[in-house]
Design a protein that fits this description.
29% of the residues lie in helices and 25% in strands. The protein is of the alpha+beta class. The strands form four sheets. The chain has a five-stranded mixed beta sheet with strand order 1-12-2-8-9.
């Protein structure tokens, strides 16, 4: 049976300022596009929009820099104030390269624990939302009531991929759909049963949205993804999409001594 084509609908936002109402901003962007959300649509929303609305902004001039932050800043050529904020935000700091610290934040391997100066008000750094899954769930519930349709919502940030140049999208908050498609035990083209493959649909969608959102002055604050292969349900957020450190090929391969 012929499936409807996947559609990506970008939503243009005004310049978002700290403390604005997230629900109002999103609805205005949807109405500006004369769009009606439909069942199984997934709204991918830029994390910076959520963070600004939630007041997750730190004034650099107010940061008290610790001795450890100074040491890390000197070693990796990072702004001391940023280093200090990263230490506050990160679950752990693993190392770094010039200008960036490699961290784990919310169980995700990411640069600078999500702390970002780009597209943050002058003299500030913007952090990830405090609880991205909760932020996604609250917005989804609001949109479902308003539009009378079962929806998915994900909060998107950018990330780097090991040994690849450039950024791609990452779903740091998820609500309303199953983030991972389990392909195990299904036959491949030659009839062999797939043994280990699982598809991270949430990050695939995040990368699609990230392609339109851009990283600079685009002001595409969200993307509606329509006719995408998701299972709409009351999911457990990003929990299913995360992998324990001991099972991660990259993490274990880089931390174990080589024999």
């Amino acid at each position: 049976m012929q499936k409807d084509p996947v559609t990506l609908i970008p939503l243009t936002f005004p310049l978002v300022r700290p403390g604005q109402n997230l629900n109002d901003i999103v609805v205005r962007a949807i109405e500006k596009r004369n769009l009606q959300l439909e069942r199984s649509d997934v709204l991918a929303l830029a994390s910076k929009v959520v963070s600004l609305c939630e007041g997750r902004v730190v004034r650099l001039g107010d940061v008290q820099v610790s001795a450890r932050a100074r040491r890390l800043a000197k070693r990796w050529n990072v702004d001391e104030r940023v280093s200090s904020i990263v230490l506050d935000e990160a679950d752990s700091v693993l190392g770094g390269v010039r200008g960036f610290l490699l961290t784990i934040k919310n169980g995700i391997l990411t640069a600078n624990a999500g702390v970002d100066l780009k597209n943050s008000p002058q003299g500030t750094a913007t952090l990830w939302p405090k609880n991205p899954d909760l932020s996604a769930r609250r917005l989804r519930k609001f949109l479902e009531r308003r539009y009378g349709a079962r929806l998915g919502v994900e909060i998107v940030d950018s990330r780097v991929t090991p040994l690849r140049l450039g950024t791609v999208g990452l779903a740091i908050g998820i609500s309303g759909f199953q983030p991972v498609l389990d392909e195990r035990r299904k036959p491949d083209l030659y009839g062999r049963k797939v043994r280990v493959t699982q598809s991270n649909i949430a990050d695939d969608l995040a990368s699609s949205a990230h392609m339109l959102m851009g990283e600079t002055r685009e002001r595409i604050g969200a993307v509606v993804l329509r006719n995408v292969p998701v299972h709409i349900c009351e999911s457990n957020g990003t929990t299913q999409a995360k992998l324990r450190e001991q099972r991660c090929l990259v993490f274990v391969g880089l931390t174990l001594p080589q024999g």
